[in-house]
Amino acid sequence: MSKQRVLSGVQPTGNLHLGNYLGAIRNWVDLQHEYDNFFCVVDLHAITVPHDPKKLAHDTYNIAALYLACGIDLQYSTIFVQSHVSAHSELTWLLNCITPLNWLERMIQFKEKAKKQGENVGVGLLDYPVLMAADILLYDADKVPVGEDQKQHLELTRDIAARINDQFGSPTQPVLKVPEPLIRKEGARVMSLTDGTSKMSKSDPSDMSRINLLDPPELIEKKIKRCKTDPVRGLTFDDPERPECNNLLNLYAILSGKTKEEVATECGDLGWGQFKPLLTEAVINSLSPIQEKYTEIINDRGYLDSVLREGRHKANLVAHQTLTRVKEALGFLLVL
Ligand code: ATP
Ligand code: MG
Fold first, then answer.
1. Ligand 1: nearest atom to the Cα of 9
2. Are the C-beta atoms of 70 and 21 separated by less than 8 Å?
3. Is 199 one of the annotated binding-site residues?
4. Is the beta carbon of 15 within 6 A of some atom in ligand 1?
5. Does 311 share its domain with 223?
6. CB 39 within 8 A of CB 264
7. Ligand 2 centre distance from Cα of residue 179 (Å)
8. Which ligand is nearest to the CA of 187?
9. Could you confirm whether 143 is annotated as catalytic?
């Protein structure tokens, strides 16, 4: 039996942070042997918010290098850049035409990011989830490993696929495969260092709100020293009044490889001054092998280019087949 397909991606909107790693990439790496994987750098998504054209290509390169540095193995996985496969844009248009506007207006990410953009919010931001649906559906993905913040977009992808199948397929011959989300509980929602109630994000204007995978040890130490805490003595998980405490303990548990129970016992009586150096050490130890590998990869442009060229070729083959299938189902004239 052939392996099931996995697809996921990250936007080149800045540096990868611990949330991206623990919510998404670490899970890609752990599961890759079981699946046939496509991991893309979703650069078309990155321009749904105002972007700097001088930085886009650099950030795209950077994220592709970090995928490899985090342990994505080309024996099991294909790495490519979304804009190198034009079928993503083309399928988005076809899906746009069957997606009701009010499905998109309800999306939480749209509402949150639109608020930040003010009055002249771009159509692309509203359309973001349709592009994401196209990314996933083009590869007939069975599973989509993402953080919890993307759950609503995945449900929308399933709804769009079901609608196409209803309107243009038949129960025995669906046009598109309906994918399943794959959200691992631990690390699914890493919160900001400066506000335990909002998620860690690349697009947060404050760099102090996140730990980037490429932050040097001194900066990690500084960010953890300054991060938001509370005046309560003793450290506990799952207290809704203490979101920062819960977030930092969870980070410590995942990065040190200890269970929640072990961490609760170890840290129950600690003050912040005693806990913060423990967390700092766990973060630095987890990130230093990734940073070393990243330096090797980013200094070998020829290699990275060849990875992305090969990825573009493999992704195009699969994506084009699906696009043709959808065009056929929608009744387009296809001339060979
Ligand atoms: P942006 O702020 O530009 O939207 P982002 O930090 O949200 O950037 P994305 O590129 O949108 O990152 O998301 C990439 C992957 O990382 C997705 O699977 C997403 O669910 C996951 N992810 C993002 N932030 C977190 C977080 N704080 N905790 C866990 N997973 C996260
Ligand atoms: Mg995001």
1. 14
2. yes
3. yes
4. no
5. no
6. no
7. 20
8. 1
9. no
Q: Is 209 annotated as a binding residue?
A: no
Cα angle, residue 313 at apex, residues 300 and 71 outer, rounded to 5°: 45
pTM of the model: 0.96
State the Cα–Cα distance between residues 318 and 96, nearest whole angstrom. 21
Helix, coil or strand: residue 195 = coil
**Residue 20 known to bind ligand:** yes
**Which range of residues forms the domain containing residue 125?**
5-187+301-330
pLDDT tens, per residue, the chain with 336 residues = 799 999 999 999 998 999 999 999 999 999 999 999 999 999 999 999 999 999 999 999 999 999 999 999 999 999 999 999 999 999 999 999 999 999 999 999 999 999 988 888 999 999 999 999 999 999 999 999 999 999 999 999 999 999 999 999 999 999 999 999 999 999 999 999 999 999 999 989 999 999 999 999 999 999 999 999 999 989 999 999 999 999 999 999 999 999 999 999 999 999 999 999 999 999 999 999 999 999 999 999 999 999 999 999 999 999 999 999 999 999 999 987
* 91 shares its domain with 168: yes
Which member of 143, 199, 223, 276 is catalytic? 199
Residue at 75 is within a domain: yes
Residue 200 beta carbon below 6 angstroms from any ligand 1 atom: yes
* CA dist., res. 189 & res. 320, Å (int): 34
Distance from residue 14's CA to the centre of ligand 2 (Å): 11
81 three-class SS = strand
| Distance in angstroms (rounded) separating the CA atoms of residues 257 and 187 | 12
Q: Is the CB of residue 196 below 6 angstroms from any atom belonging to ligand 1?
A: no
Give the integer Cα–Cα distance in Å for 261 and 238.
Answer: 12
Atom of ligand 1 minimally distant from the CA of 204: 2
Q: Looking at the domain assignment, is residue 286 inside a domain?
A: yes
Q: Candidates 8, 10, 143: which one to mutate for ligand 1, based on the most atoms within 8 Å of Cβ?
A: 10
Binding site annotation covers 201? yes
The answer to whether residues 105 and 11 belong to one domain is yes
Q: Which amino acid is at 109?
A: Q
